[in-house]
Amino acid sequence: MAWDFQTIRNQAQKEADSICDNTSLESFRIKYLGKKGLIPQVYASLSTASKEDKPLLGKNANELKNFISGLIEEKKLSVKDTINQSSKSNIDVTLPGVANDLGHSHLLTQTMDEICGLFEKLGFIVQEGPEIETEFNNFDALNIPSNHPSRDGFDTFYVDQVDPGDKDKKLLLRSQTSPVQIRVMKANKPPLAVVVPGKVYRPDAVDASHSFMFHQIEGLLVDQDIKFSHLKGLLTTFCNRFFGDNIKMRFRPHFFPFTEPSAEIDISWEKGKKDWLEIMGCGMVHPQVFKAVGYPKGKYTGLAFGLGVERIAMLRYGIRDIRLFYENDKRFLEQF
Ligand code: DAH
To answer: Is the CB of 129 under 6 A from ligand 1?
Structure first.
């Protein structure tokens, strides 16, 4: 049998080049040097070769065997190398694991959840309203006169879009959560009790205590015989549950167009000291507001309140700058 030694070498070289692990190296070895491999077949063919051909065939067979053995030795080394390298980059099981960075609710969300939760235990339902409101809900229906300064473009963000229900008026970014009172009363008959968390917007210059966007929680309770004593009892209970039993509270007379009478609630932690901190506005729903939502005259009375979430969280946790809430700095957020 005539062997094409050059072609066999080229073929073997090609196969050797693609060997990358011990398994492929072993099949290569078996193919050429194994008992039934090519090299033994070449040697076997010596017995049938003619006298003249034998010496050259023997020489070629030896050279081919050496060549293949060389390839195998070479490959043994390089396969070992790559195995070493990959074991170097393998995971070091002695290292501590990489824990997933689990997030949690933002402090403002936690505070809103906690406040709403306290009112829910007292029978209130959580409601939300849209951040783009009508002038009617944000002002008119709340008995805020058309010449009131808060309606000015300096104090309210108006949207470049007219109110589809009243083409003479523009839509706006609500400046308070109170318009949701109007939506709730229009959609429901008393008795009703809701708390409304949400974002509000005012074009204030940003500083340590002001932001163009902040959060409020509104409260509204309407029934047939709601009195100021209910308001005092409810909000005293809330303040004690939220701030603790050791606070002092006072209801200070104030003015809001949508409540009459109206008050602001101040609290103080330190005995004897006069540093009262204002925490929320409240009052008895103004009859004009009931009129605006179409409730029959004199049938219902109600109480309402509104508080600023950032302000309350700042007081409770000693946070000095409102901007910290919005900067998303984990060093701040992780503390709560
Ligand atoms: N809407 C008021 C504000 O933004 C807060 C407020 C005060 C809401 C008294 C009320 C209330 O419901 O009765 O300043």
So the answer is: no
Residue 78 pLDDT more than 90? no
Above pLDDT 90, what percent of the chain? 85
The pLDDT score that the predictor gives to residue 99 is 86
To 5 degrees, how large is the angle CA 259–CA 264–CA 265?
130
304 lines ligand 1 (CB under 6 A): yes
Taking 80 as the threshold, does the pLDDT of residue 274 lie above it? no
Closest Cα to atom 6, ligand 1: which residue?
306
Answer yes or no: is the C-beta of 259 below 6 A from any ligand 1 atom: yes
Number of H helices, E strands in the chain: 11, 10
Best mutation site among 210, 211, 256 for ligand 1 pocket (most ligand atoms within 8 Å of CB) = 256
- Whose CA is closest to atom 7 on ligand 1? 281
* 271 confidence band (pLDDT: 50, 70, 90): low
| Cross-sheet strand order for the sheet of 301-308 | 125-126, 192-201, 213-223, 301-308, 277-285, 259-268, 248-256
Distance, CA of 336 to CA of 333 (rounded, Å): 6
In angstroms, rounded to a whole number, what is the distance separating the alpha carbons of residues 335 and 314?
13
The residue behind tokens 């390839």 is 71
